[in-house]
Specification:
It is a single chain. The protein is mostly beta strands and 123 residues long. Helices cover 0% and strands 51% of the residues. Strands 2, 4, 5, 6, 9, 10 and 11 form a 7-stranded mixed beta sheet that branches. Strands 1-3-8-7 form a 4-stranded antiparallel beta sheet, with no helix packed on it. Strand 5 and strand 6 form a beta hairpin. The radius of gyration is 13 Å and the shape is globular.
Length: 123
């Protein structure tokens, strides 16, 4: 079955940038959307961004608009999250997720998740 493996997290200073990658292995059937979520220490997991199968349409939570960019390369079965102008409040574990059909901001709508990668932004 399909697996998602994330990489690219690390420690950066406020104002810096990171690029997260999420590589899918195995096989997927039909169209699927992908998304990024994050979870800060002691907080609930929250939606960050989604991207449609085609990559044409994207959507971001308000707190990251203008700073983060989600993209995908279906030939390489990889999703990306480019994070610029990072702030301390961006600190947390970042997860990629995939689902069949249309996009969603709801955690429970995603059945396939990566293991998460830690992003720490220092002030």
């Amino acid at each position: 079955q399909v697996q998602l493996v994330e990489s690219g997290g690390g420690l950066v200073q406020a104002g810096g940038s990171l690029r997260l990658s999420c590589v899918a292995s195995g096989r997927t059937a039909g169209w699927y959307s992908m998304a990024w979520f994050r979870q800060a220490p002691g907080k609930e997991r929250e939606f960050v961004a989604w991207i449609t199968w085609s990559g044409v349409y994207t959507y971001y939570t308000d707190s990251v608009k203008g700073r983060f960019t989600i993209s995908r390369d279906n030939a390489e079965k990889t999703a990306y999250l480019q994070m610029n102008s990072l702030k301390p409040e961006d600190t947390g574990v970042y997860y990629c997720a995939a689902k069949g059909g249309s996009t969603s901001v709801a955690i429970d709508d995603y059945a396939t998740w990566g293991q998460g990668t830690q992003v720490t932004v220092s002030s």
